[in-house]
Each structure stands twice: as structure tokens, then as C-alpha cells.
Amino acid sequence: MEAFTGRSGIFDGVIISCSDKGTRFFLEQDVRLKVVGRREGLNNRIQKAIDDAEAKTAGGTRGQINMCINYGGRAEIVDGIQKIITQGKTVEEINEDMVSASLWTNGIPEPEMIVRTSGEKRLSGFLAWSGVYSELMFIDHHWPDFSVEDLDACLEEYQGRQRRYGV
Fold first, then answer.
1. This prediction's pTM
2. CB of 52 within 8 A of CB of 21?
3. What InterPro entries does UniProt report for this protein, alphabetically (predicted)?
4. Burial, 109: exposed, middle or buried (Cβ in 10 Å; 0-12, 13-18, 19+)?
5. Of 35, 102, 117, 160, which one's alpha carbon is 20 to 30 angstroms from that of 4?
6. What pLDDT band is residue 6 in, cutting at 50, 70 and 90?
7. Could you tell me the residue range of the domain that residue 36 belongs to?
8. 49, 18 in Cβ contact below 8 A?
9. How confident is the model over 30-36, as a mean pLDDT?
10. Predicted confidence (pLDDT) per residue in 44-80, tens digit
């Protein structure tokens, strides 16, 4: 959510990813698109593009591309806790599984790899809960310029890493 302040280029990347061209690419690869975050506050055109792209790619069987739009890790956790409270749960009943199930990312496997674009070497609260054991990749340019070659380089580096899950 914080990333959208003054960053119209990010919106362009969203539209491109969810456009007919982007959707065709996902369909050709047989992957589904899942967009996570608060849709309130996004303009109607972007909301419709996201809804259409998710619906058209829902049958993808080779994998899933998760895109976080208008997302903040703290906001996700706060919304999840509020959801649990509205269900009438007591403090004693709340556990990690319950929190995980209440988050926007519920149903999405914890990411094995997170790619951070823009040259920043921090996550800024991104996937604060579900990304705790993810391998991190940092790319110098912004999201709209992220290419297939960049993805290939990230995947190649990832394959050479030994995952330790916090150990």
C-alpha cells in the first residue's frame, strides 16, 4: 500500500500484467494469476482488469503467479486479526494456523522466492507473515521493466541456493 504513493508507473505495470496481452501470456504458460491486497482505493479500471485476468486464468494448472497490489504486510496482519476478533475468538484460541487462515494470502503457498525490484535491499513489510522463510532476490530496475530474462536469472540463482528455513 505504501508503494503506491506517487508511483504511477506501478499502475501501468499492473494494467499491462492484467491486460489482454498479459492474460494471453499467462494462458499460454497455463498459469493462473492471483492478485492479493486491498482492492478498495484502486480505480474501477484497474479493479476490472484484475478481476478479468484472474477469472480468465483461473484454470491454469502449471503454476500460479501471485501479484501483490495495494498490499502492506502490516495491514494484512491487522485485517486478519480483526477478522478473527469478529468471529468471536478468545485470545487463548488464537494460534498461528488461525492467523494464517485469516490473511489475504490464505490458500497461497508460502513463497519460496521473493523478487524485490527497484534496487532497494529491504522488504518494507512485504509478505511479513508468509514470506518469513522465502529466498530473496533483488533487481535494480523497477517492476514495469522486469523481464523474462530477469526472471530466468532469479530462478537460476534460486536453484543454486540451499534453503535453510530460518536455521
1. 0.73
2. no
3. UPP_synth-like, UPP_synth-like_sf
4. exposed
5. 102
6. very low
7. 1-70
8. yes
9. 92
10. 888 888 999 999 999 999 999 888 888 999 999 999 9
